[in-house]
Amino acid sequence: MKLIFHWIVSTIAILIAAYLIPNVEVDTFVTALILAVVLGALNMLVKPILLLLTFPITIITLGLFTIVINAALVWLAQLVVPGFTIQNFGWAILFALVLSIINLVFRQMNRSDDKPSFRVNN
Prior knowledge:
mainly alpha, 6 helices, 5% strand, globular
């Protein structure tokens, strides 16, 4: 159930990011669902390898190079998912940033609901 919820949240984040960024197009909701699966698979399978290969430059840039890695994964997803287009790599960087921020906000909202509250009765 948690996986399906995360999938839907990622899909909504993709639709919001595509709406906010002018040169990014997602044709349909189904395209956004497919894109969420593809980005999830790329983040799970390809991103760790890229992070390992680019570890020295990531350290030198204090982690900012991971933004470029995320943009590269978005750009790669564009090549795989029909109906998802980005005009250039600069827009891919912006899309990756906005998508990360939106996902972070959704995760924080979800996390606050999961935490148990402990009250001390006096």
